[in-house]
């Protein structure tokens, strides 16, 4: 095998995920698993639904008061998600 065919395992996995369009599914799964770490206990405990569509994060909470508070924290929450995922994925947060 020539040196040109050698690549790191991380690069090979990234390439595989991109070729098979699995990146977004991995990101969404990671987001669900780690939501409490990303958003904090209060938001996580009141989250009913959470899903990604393209670059938008949709969030449903069970409290009108918390929904109002999240409205003011949107930019920080987006920043937290992107920082956790180590990529600039989320551009918009929509409360439903």
Notes on the protein architecture:
This protein is of the alpha+beta class and 96 residues long. It has one domain: 2-Layer Sandwich (Alpha-Beta Plaits), CATH 3.30.70. The protein is 56% helix and 18% strand. The protein is built from five helices and three strands. The chain has helices at residues 9-19, 23-33, 35-39, 41-45, 64-85, and strands at 47-53, 56-61, 92-95. A three-stranded mixed β-sheet has the order 1-2-3. The longest helix has 22 residues, at 64-85. The protein is elongated. The mean pLDDT is 90.
Q: Which CATH architecture would you pick?
A: 2-Layer Sandwich
Distance between the termini: 53 Å
Total E-strand runs: 3
> Would you give the CATH topology?
Alpha-Beta Plaits
Strand content: 15-25%
The helix-strand sequence is HHHHEEHE
Low-confidence stretches: none
- The tally of helices reads 5
Structural features:
5 helices; Alpha-Beta Plaits; elongated; 96 residues; alpha+beta; 3-stranded mixed sheet
